[in-house]
Request: fold
Amino acid sequence: MKLDDSLRDLLAGEYVLGTLRGAARRRFERVLQHDPHLREAVAAWERRLGAVVGLEIEPGSEADPPPAVWGAIERRIGGAAPARERRGQTGFAALWENLAFWRGLGLAAAALLLLVSGLFFTLPGEVAGPERVAVVLDQSARPLWVISAKAQGLLEVTTINSPGMGPDRVCELWVIAGDAPPLSVGILPEGGRAVLRWPAANSTPAPAEARLAVSIEPAGGSPAGRPTGPVIFEGDLLPL
Amino acid sequence: MVFHAAPASAVPASGVSPSEHTAIIRACLAACADGEREAFERLYRLTSARLYAVARRMLRSEALAQECLQDAYISIWRNAGRYRSDRSAPLTWMTSIVRNRALDILRVATREVAMDDPKIAGLLDAAAPLDGTQGPDYVPELHPCLEQLREEQRECLRLAYFDGLSHAQVAERMTVPIGTVKSWVRRALLQLRDCLG
Reply:
């Protein structure tokens, strides 16, 4: 690291720590706007200080803010949508809209593809996480399941919220590779955790090459060996 | 068949690992970037208790902390599309937004004004493990890299990071010259960088 870089990095540290004040802070923020390297340095310090000093927030000091705070936030965002939405519908938003009509069937879900950096796992006390993960959300952005691909061809499924399918319907998980027909993985649980086995057929792709899909099927799973009900989720397992 | 409204919860559902909790927060942020209000509300329910604690710790005033939280979440909603998952964990990114807003507020509302708020006295008692007067049962988890620092360096970092104090205010609090504080902070940062990479 050159001397200049080292000084800039220290300045970034003081900025994140909050000891860079006044006009110097304003100047730093102006430079930050068009200096990606400096932004990287700031992000690194946010990570470092958050990991070491941030740990010390006393657990008991966390309490929900009064309900009025959320009320005020809702009023202030009013009809304003984030910038990206104003630029036009993204794939995700379009998918979301299309899914609206599944509501009548009782379940609409959308996939959010996750890219979880290794960063989280460098925090102390963390154990190595699953290798690949997908989260299935419903139309209210309520997470239903977290699906993690583990070693030895296992898929660990954690129910975050029950899909509330009732007695005669289930959600079935499928693996898809390219144009090949979907391979059934198993029935997703209504609650708790389940471990499903990655299909063992010769044509089964590795998790990295596969897509996941979830369909609504009659109790006991699809009678046809392929999805017969509406597909409510499609997405990749992304690396952690 | 209708979805049941799930009760909002600020804590991870039981059985959800920290990495899954982070994955959910990340998913909510991604949906916020696409304008999903429901995801924003969920994100708020999942994270506001933590961020409120950060804001209260820095601002020492419930009223100011609530103002800070409002501004921060508006900023999170508007900038969700700019969050880069390869650069920082989602809660780290959100915490930075709260901290920056709190520092702005501190610049405007002097600490003296905040101290006059009658609500503050109780808060001051409740917060601030600054001098070991916190509850006897509470031992802050000490990161190994923090352990390598001298206690006065750690104290500088805490006063600046949590309490939003400037070099001069830290110097006053610790009754040492400002130059000493500056060099303690600088050395502490360098040591942390060496230790954490």
